[in-house]
Write a structure and sequence with these properties.
The protein has 269 residues and is α/β, with parallel strands linked by helices. The chain contains six helices and eleven strands. The chain folds into two domains: 39-134 and 222-267, 2-Layer Sandwich (Alpha-Beta Plaits), CATH 3.30.70; 146-210, no CATH class.
């Protein structure tokens, strides 16, 4: 992707050090309007129809992922940027947001998971309609890094099959206890072990993926109707969003990436 920023002749180019950024795509992205003063003279209605249950978690939780009843502004910004095809890397987005911060002398809001939208100074959400909701919990597989990979990962090198079968059968133990407690660090223990052996976790570490799966309870909501939002923005952006929503550059979702939605954009007179 080539991100191109153009400015008026007498306006300093705040983006000159990051213009012409190239990625694997040949798409050209002109974000000139981000440098213009905020303009909220156009009102539109954004209607969202959930095609699947939604889990709209606003911040990184502990042991339970609680969903919001409706999407937060940052989730809506993300959905619209997805429709527009603004798939910008974290570094590039950080550079742009810092320049916008200096331009508008205002800190950009950040979502609970660190997402910063570039639309914040040019599009805002007003009143909303929240449909009736059905709430339910389900389990969601969370991938984590750490020492729990032995019990949490079903994938490992086939050379470990006899040893892992013995571990599951209670014939041997695998752990991170010291050799003084009988847990051997001898790599030959993979093939040469006997009942009652203790094998140190480092013996098998390189034959496991360095992550594990943890089933985590997560709340979902199933809207019994459509979400509706009044949006205020500029004429230029209203037309851009309308075209993008009608023919999005990528599938639209809210919350977790399996929360598929369809959207409709109507400019209000």
């Amino acid at each position: 992707m080539v991100i191109k920023f153009m400015t008026e002749q007498n306006q300093p180019n705040l983006f000159e050090d990051v213009s012409g950024i190239e990625t694997s795509s040949e798409t050209k992205l002109n974000l000139d309007f981000l440098l213009q003063p905020s303009d909220f003279s156009v009102r539109a209605k954004l209607t969202i129809d959930a095609l699947a249950p939604l889990s709209m978690v606003a911040s990184l939780p502990g042991k339970y992922y609680r969903s919001q009843p409706e999407p937060t502004p940052q989730m809506l910004y993300g959905m619209i940027e997805n429709a527009l095809g603004w798939h910008i890397s974290v570094k590039e987005r950080k550079d742009l947001s810092n320049k916008l911060k200096r331009k508008f002398e205002t800190e950009l809001e950040k979502s609970g998971v660190g997402f910063i939208s570039l639309l914040q100074f040019h599009l805002r959400f007003g009143t909303s309609y929240l449909p009736p909701l059905l709430h339910f919990d389900d389990y969601w597989t969370q991938h984590l890094r750490g020492g729990g990979f032995i019990g949490g990962s079903r994938n490992y090198d086939n050379r470990l099959i006899p040893l892992m079968n013995a571990q599951r059968g209670g014939q041997i133990n695998i752990g991170d206890q010291s050799e003084e407690k009988g847990f051997s660090k001898d790599p030959n223990k993979i093939n040469d072990f006997k009942d009652g052996d203790g094998v140190h976790v480092n013996v098998v570490r390189d034959l496991f993926p360095q992550y594990y799966s943890s089933p985590t309870p997560r709340e979902y909501v199933l809207p019994k109707g459509k979400y509706k939002f009044v949006v205020e923005t500029s004429n230029v952006l209203a037309e851009m969003v309308g075209k993008a929503v009608e023919n999005p550059a990528a599938p639209l979702y809210l919350g977790s990436n399996d929360g598929w939605v369809e959207a409709d954009w109507e400019i209000l007179v």
